[in-house]
Amino acid sequence: MKSDDIDNEELTRLLRKFGKAGDRSREALAAHRKFYDHIARVLDRQALQATNYNEDLAVAAVQDAWLRILRKAETYDPARATVKTWVKDITYKCAIDVLRKHYKHNRNTSLSNEDAASADADGDATAGRTSASHWLEPVSDPDETACDLPSPEDRAYGSQLERVMRDCLNMLPTGDGPNYRLAMELTLEDELSYADMTVRLQEQTPPGVLINAEQVRGWVRAATQRMRRCVSAKLGWARPKRGGMATDQKETRA
Fold first, then answer.
1. Residue ranges of domains in the chain
2. Is residue 173 within 8 Å of 179, Cβ to Cβ?
3. What is residue 130's DSSP assignment?
4. Which Gene Ontology BP terms does the record give (predicted)?
5. Which CATH class is domain 152-235?
6. Which of 4, 123, 194, 197 is deepest in the core (most CB within 10 A)?
7. Treating both helix axes as pointing N-terminal to C-terminal, what angle do 152-170 and 180-187 enclose, rounded to 10 degrees?
């Protein structure tokens, strides 16, 4: 039996133990803690990737994902997917939902602020502004908001968001300069360290040019910044900066 199979059997056992409805025994709590220790990094990584490395949104996505895992633990079917695949799928869906709300909120807030400024140029420009954290606050009842099924309009917006993110990823620079696209793609691979990423990126680097892990970290940061600007611009709520959004003077090239 493969070690992955053993690991999945253990995760399944723990999930079954703490997933029983109404069970608040010491054994169930211990199983939940052990399950968390096994799987937390998987959820954190998936949430960061899906939210384009926005830590605040990733935290919100993981929170929603854990609530949904608690709600759906009894429905897990090992014949359909491993536990890790199952929780990653939940986390991804929650992250996309959080990200969609984030961009939708910013778009609506921008429009509201413009309307307020036009109505009263002398008024407080921030008077009608809504805090983006209002939907990030924890909830006491998991059934209230944990990755609720989106409306048809929101599903369409979520699909648009995913397409935009794919388009922006494909627009990242590659070739002889900093390979931002490959760097970002490699961050999507599970359990891949910066040292591993450096090896992979070095293989695509012109002969005689050496890179290190710190440079790769810089590429990922720069790629993330470009992705955020690109997604914001394509969704139409961010004002383009003077001179365009394709470059950033603060980015450091290797």
1. 3-106, 152-235
2. yes
3. P
4. DNA-templated transcription initiation
5. mainly alpha
6. 197
7. 130
* Interval 8-36: pLDDT, tens: 899 999 998 887 777 778 888 888 889 98
Residues 112, 128 contacting (CB under 8 angstroms): yes
Token reading at 231 = 């997604």
**pLDDT tens for residues 206-231?**
888 899 999 999 998 899 888 888 88
Amino acid at 11: L
By the 8 A CB rule, do 69 and 90 touch?
A: yes
Q: Are 106 and 130 in contact (CB under 8 A)?
A: no
**What's the confidence (pLDDT) of residue 109?**
57
Residue 171, classed as helix, strand or coil, is coil
Predicted pLDDT at 158: 65
CATH architecture for the domain at 3-106: Orthogonal Bundle (1.10)
Cβ count near 153 (within 10 Å): 9
Q: What does the chain come to in residues?
A: 254
Integer Cα distance of 124 and 42 in angstroms: 44
